[in-house]
């Protein structure tokens, strides 16, 4: 056990050294670029030196120039061994449309927020998500224009691969991409439940190809397969304000874009009640008779992603996990919002593996994970909407003075095999 812990610590040290070397390389590239002035000629000269493609050399020079000139504190974090080049590139992609002053503002705010942040905050996906919110804070007026420009650049790309395979990538508006994946995933799972022996990955790929080529995938799309949540404050929905909106599994989106999604003829609406003190969803408007379906859906709305600190799989593609086992000896946990959380299949299975201790508090939104070799990571769920007032949160106190919030969803019931949870109209708390 001690030997493994020492080796893991060695890996941590190597990662820090790699970050420091990445920082040294980027700083040197920026210095060379400033001296030479001709990045095109410099790119060609450095291609055999760095032993990567010419396009990759261009990216590194661009990253170096942007990092040293616009985000010096992020460069300092690299030099301290906190962040490697791959994570820096994710951050720079988010701040790229900003002018220099706004980028430096994001840099300063990010350094402040990361001062006492947990280790998982440095993971590239988590970092990019945090930076998106800071960009919106520093330059809220440009959010809509940046989104429109990016959405106008939608495209599809074919990249040849090895061993007779290629990848087909579609760059789409976030809510369209999420709905496409949900549809394909739902059809693949239907085939799997019907006895198809292909893996889910194979089924998703084959269903996608069948749909694009006009062939029959052999299964009807489940009614709720293309469900995507957009969290829109009432004021923003009514165009009274441009308060921040949220796209499930992605992050903040501009209010005008959210209104366009919301008013699409294909959208389906459901009311979501949010506590004004915490910004958390506490109930869903519903006409269905199976509250277990409502509970599962509300948990997905509330948590939005797998609860593991470094996993960003959208909750709609995760298992509904009882934090206190439903069938536990001596009286298990209830099927309720207060006892449920989304975990992707991988992390759902990992939770009960020997040595792993992964605990999620659904009420307070805190996750604490301890690995078999003693490392502990924590994370806290971000509220869906920004809280409007300070309200104490108690585990056993009913929510009062909730405000209505809206989000697209589905009103069709989800099947359950548990007769005790069918035809029950009691609230999900």
UniProtKB/TrEMBL annotation:
The keyword Hydrolase applies. GO terms for molecular function: endonuclease activity. Residues 4-31 form a coiled coil. Keywords: Coiled coil, Endonuclease, Hydrolase, Nuclease. Residues 393-404 have a biased composition (Basic and acidic residues). Residues 10-303 form the DUF222 domain. Residues 328-429 are annotated as: Disordered. InterPro entries: DUF222. It comes from the Bacteria. This is HNH endonuclease signature motif containing protein. It comes from Prauserella halophila.
